[in-house]
Design goal:
The structure is a single chain. This protein is α+β, with helices and mostly antiparallel strands and 395 residues long. It has three domains: 96 residues; 137 residues, Adenine-n6-DNA-methyltransferase TaqI, Chain A, domain 2 (Alpha-Beta Complex), CATH 3.90.220.20; 152 residues, DNA methylase specificity domains (Adenine-n6-DNA-methyltransferase TaqI, Chain A, domain 2). The protein is built from 13 helices and 19 strands. The chain starts with a helix and ends with a helix. The N terminus is likely disordered. The strands form six sheets. Strands 11-18-15-16-13 form a five-stranded mixed sheet. Strand 5 and strand 6 form a beta hairpin.
């Protein structure tokens, strides 16, 4: 893609014209007082626009009541004017109505409509919108303020070449995302075929050498806790101390570092356990279902149920199995402030374990899916970074 950029475009801005956003873009004032009679099929709220995604992929319909009346057309860019720091701006591939917290943007004749989404996705444009937002908890920015954003506009013929390049880059990213989706679908299909959910009487239906165990029979299961924040001597040591945030923001199976570290005295204070390498550290509170296998000895806070597997199961197989059974485990959770699965409920939870040879094959295949996914996600991330770099360079 780097070669494609250098071959197709040389960014010479000597003949570009300084313009204000309002010189090339306007806010249409179309509306629908009776969406059903007008044949409206798509209703868009802020929740339907994904952060830093140029495509509008979601919408609701009129099956549920709506107070929205602001109209938009195919090709318009829907900009989330409330909390602009969320960087929500997407081009619509259909017409409809949208929330008042969305500003509809449409290109004037001197701007190629295909280029508008990329101008808005520029980091400098978002920074400008954030700076000019007003309000406390839910700051909003008005179009009259966005209209004063200044940038250089290329001549129409260069706009066309630039739009062609940027959309070609976007197409590469979209194809990579489609491949990723197919991998995820294939993985889910494989899991459904080879990973079993326990149901009453399943023992009679299982293949030979498959067994049903309570989780307490295949692993030692204990939890963690938090040293007192008031005692400085307990913190900033060299013992990794895992919290759910470390896990939910991590996209790999294994982990070798944490955001916070505790000291030996902090570990003794909470009577916590230092979990050996290869333990399965499973979120059983709030963010139920996230898990990692530690590459270094770690302690955890109280949001975890931690598994040290015995000879009946491998840590990687149990990792994939518990992730697959997230919905079933979540049903065991209770709590008024946040959901949490009690240790007793987890220990009693029944799982189906295959013989070791089958377990090894299943784990190997799921690891293949995982590695392929990580490689593709890295490629997509690089493609997006390259596209964003060009957008920021141009506008």
């Amino acid at each position: 893609m780097e070669t494609m950029i250098s071959e197709q475009i040389s960014i010479d801005k000597s003949d570009w014209t300084p313009v204000k956003f309002g010189d090339v873009v306007f806010e249409p004032k179309e509306s629908s007082k009776d969406p059903k009679a007008d044949g409206i099929k798509h209703v868009v709220g802020l929740e339907h626009i994904e952060s830093e995604d140029i495509h509008l992929r979601h919408s609701a319909n009129l099956d549920t009541s709506t107070t929205f009346s602001k109209g938009f057309a195919e090709g318009d860019v829907l900009f989330g004017r409330r909390r602009a720091y969320l960087k929500k701006a997407a081009q619509a591939k259909f017409s409809g109505i949208c929330s008042g917290d969305i500003t509809v943007l449409r290109a004037k004749d001197n701007l190629l409509p295909q280029l508008l989404p990329f101008i808005v996705q520029n980091d400098k444009f978002f920074d400008y919108a954030i700076k000019h937002s007003a309000g406390g908890l839910s700051p909003r920015v008005k179009f009259k303020d966005l209209a004063n954003y200044e940038f250089l506009l290329p001549p129409k013929d260069q706009q066309a070449k630039l739009a062609e390049l940027l959309w070609a880059m976007d197409e590469v990213i979209e194809r990579e995302n489609e491949v990723l989706e197919k991998i995820d679908i294939s993985k889910r299909t494989y899991e459904k075929k080879w990973l079993n959910k326990y149901t009453s009487g399943i023992e009679k239906k299982l293949p030979i050498n498959y067994k049903v165990y309570r989780l307490s029979e295949i692993a030692e299961i204990t939890g963690g806790s938090t040293p007192s924040r008031d005692v400085k001597e307990f913190w900033n040591g060299d013992i990794p101390w895992l919290t759910p945030t470390d896990v939910t923001n991590h996209n790999r199976i294994t982990l070798d570092r944490t955001k916070e570290y505790i000291t030996e005295s902090g570990l003794r204070n909470i009577s916590n356990r230092l979990y050996p390498i290869g333990s399965l550290l499973y979120c059983s509170r709030a963010t139920i279902g996230h898990a990692i296998i530690n590459d270094v000895p770690m302690a955890t806070n109280q949001g975890f149920s931690n598994f040290i597997c015995n000879e009946k199961v491998t840590n990687y197989f149990l990792y994939f199995l518990l992730k697959y059974l997230t919905n079933e485990l979540t049903r065991l959770a209770g709590g008024s402030t946040f959901l949490e699965i009690s240790k007793s409920s987890i220990r009693r939870f029944r799982v189906v374990i295959p013989p070791k040879g089958v377990m090894k094959n299943i784990t190997g295949k799921l690891l293949e899916y995982e590695n392929t996914r990580l490689e593709l996600e890295s490629k997509i991330s690089s493609s997006k970074a390259l596209q964003k770099s060009l957008i920021n360079q141009v506008f």
